[in-house]
Amino acid sequence: MSHVDFDSTIVVGKAQLSRRGFLAAGGALVVYACLAPRDAFAQAATSTNSLDPTRSLSWIEIRSDNTIQFRTGKCDFGQSSIYIAYPQIIAEELGVPLEAINSIISGDTDRTPDGGGTFGLLRTNVVNLRKVAAYTREAILELAGRRFGVPRDQLTVTAGVVTGAGKSVTYGELVQGQDLKLVIPVRGNATDFSGLVVEGDPPLKSPSTYEIVGKPFKNPNITAKVKAETLWASDVKLPGMWHGRVIHPPTLGSKLVKAGSLDSKKFQDSRLVVQGNFLGVVAPNEWDVIRAAWEVAASTEWTSWKGLPGHERLFDHLREKVDWAALPVMNGAANKGDVAAAMRGSAKIHAAGYEIPYLKHAPIGPSVALADVRADGTVTVHTNTQNPQFLRKGIAIMLNTSIDKVVIRTYAGSGHYGRSNGGNAGAEDQAVLLSKAVGRPVRLQWMRAEDVQWSTQSSAMFSTVRIGLDPNGRVLAYQSDHFGPPMQDDRLVGALLAGLPTMGVPAPKMPAPHQGELLVRDPWVYHHVPNVAEVGHGTPQIGQHESPLQAGLRDHSMRTPIQFQQNFPREVAMSEAAALAGIDALQFRIDQTSEPRIKDILTRLRDASEWRSRPTPSPEAASSGDGTVRGRGVSVIFRDNGFWACGAHVAVTPSTGAVKVERMTLVVDPGIVVNPLQLKRQVEAGCLMGVSIALHEEVTFDEGAVTASDWISYPILKMAEAPEIRVVLVHRPETGVHGQGSETSNALAASAIASAVFDATGKPMRRLPLRPENVKRALSA
Amino acid sequence: MLTITVNGQKRHVASAPETPLLYVLRNELGIMSPKFGCGLAQCGACSVLLDDAEIRSCVTPVSGVANKEVTTVEGLPARWARRHGRAADQGTLHPVQEAWIEQQVPQCGFCQYGMMIKATELLEQNPKPSDEDIKTAFTTSGPSAHLCRCGSYLAILEGVRHAVSLMAKKDGGA
Prior knowledge:
heterodimer; A: alpha+beta; Aldehyde Oxidoreductase, domain 4; 8-stranded mixed beta sheet; 7-stranded mixed beta sheet; 17 helices; 24% strand; B: alpha+beta; DNA polymerase, domain 1; 2 domains; 5-stranded mixed beta sheet; 5 strands
């Protein structure tokens, strides 16, 4: 065996390769993160961030048997990103076969290096992973070059084999018998919102040479789930574990007067836990604890509270009662020209208001977590979460303890589509409070009603839009004002109830992501419009300051957060302006944009959806009668580096207000399509969630509490309502950008459907959801 | 002590007779594929087969299943083998499971155990369902529609169609 000869370290760009020793058996190249020198001041602060290489927090490991493991602090909720898109991207950049990657560690705060939250998986975080893989490949090439005695530029890599000077060697052979360490410079902090960012610019493979990225591989994670081999967060058990249930206040502002009585003879070994306004029951048996919690709830006394407008008065309240001048307004990045003057010079003006209600993430599985708080002060939480490091921080703040005492372990879980609580869902911190109180592991399962009533929601917003047209139907001026809370309440709900410390709530002058101002989050796409003024108006959460618990209608990110609420009014208003101009709604959009990729997806949409060009409304449009009228609508969005267009074809029965979505067509240009099979499934599924939001969803609440409590009072789409969906993927390797799927199609459906109902009936639809009663109201307006 | 039959095995149950079957399966018997979704028979995440019919284990007292056979997704491969007069073969999945993988049906997958149970019930009763039959089965045939929040309904439709062809092939070859 001939080891590559080197004494100290090999420099690989900004990374350093060293050999820690020789091994009798095995061998590996292990890749670590290390804070870059200019961030060294942060080293002390991050000593608790699991960045110590001695703790084996590798990023990538190449073993002597040619297998590879990688780790990421992000989580997968079914997008398939981590279990198949990431392996494809990493294998591609490393130059190894996809099958070589046989181990992935994801999301656990003590076992992953990079931290940050789970968002931008294929937008921002992928750049990190590509760089880590590229540094690693370059280090392998350095080793091979030394072994062969040839320079780097005479080496080639194919499927995990390096060839040069007539010789070849596998990656495994290069690391055989050695303990190799590659240290990659990073900046940032694992517990920050975005986690660590890799420094330097190792050479990245050209997308035109990709062989693994772009292929329709199956997701191995699906196989494990279908075989019932997956350990879900709700399945985790620990020795000595008991079950918990929480009794939540009857309103979002009620305080505990007197805890109900618990019959511990009837419910053996059960314990009541009271801390401030936090009330829970713990028992060895789950069915016992459910019934015990019902009994305690029935005899518990709370203060009454009223501080919400009620959902029927919500938009009147937002318009009339909220002081929108209390927070600075935020201007859109595309604002230009003189909108007021251009409006005065317009031949026609479309002006209207649009409303989107509070929505629920509504996971099929209510929040569940298992917490193990030990006497030595260590805390381990087993859960599924979108942001394990943020949850870890939140729990450390709540317990007033050091962050290195807290570990979050993550598992497969019911999809959450954002964050329905600060950490993820709500049960995590409450499980911690229960475990701490009883000194044993406690598994807390929220019941359905709690998940609907005590998780955060996607905040309601209303917008006013004005579009000025010239005599030829060109848009001279576009003005939109968006009003609503900023959707980022990271406070843990158990801490709020127990009166314990929390992270800051969105407020003026808070640092991102907790700024109270409402940003303009929907990138502008109609660049031919000469005058643009988009403005965001923020406000604190509704009821938050009025609630003695500081609770109220807490809100947090849900699929395309804020962008959906701003894109819906823009796209519906553009279709209405097209109608005012007497121009086909799809052509009207092509005319307003200079972006060739938008023109291209709209042209493809016209073909794929069998769109017949004509002005809206349809010649057969009717707003009354028992007959069925049909219409079509279109919408576009730019998100996560991807351009998307959507066409909806609907049938409406004016007499009943019933809307049937018959066909949805989506054209997606995300840049590089990493995996067309998985992207198509994501697009279809996201679109159906969008159809659900369009037709059904609204959080109902009275003056004190969310009144929706189950799947009857918060209905979602059922299979029989699913329309035909056509998906067209546009692969553009020349962009060099890995495109994101998952949530964007979700945002496009409602605006296309509302515009299609307008086309079918001649009556604009400006408020979601398009339930029969809302549609009938709009038809008779 | 109650005795129930789950996935072909007789199991003694210490839980109180009124305990919903879901908690007995998950907490006492360690059968984890049925999931808690609502506890109200409104979503189908907890569905199991009771003899040949899909039921909601979250609202079914364990005492009510004493003389019947409960099948969960863990027991689908053996159920298929038994119904076709074959020995249960380690590693061979039920055609519905095969189809679910082939068609990459799940997104998050939390509802899919109930979906596969519903698909099995449907295909045992109607080996050649139309799309309308499939939509009806998943929407109105049970105590509630089977709900998927991720929106995998079209994938499920394609999964059932694929299972139909797999079953026909396997039956033909038997």
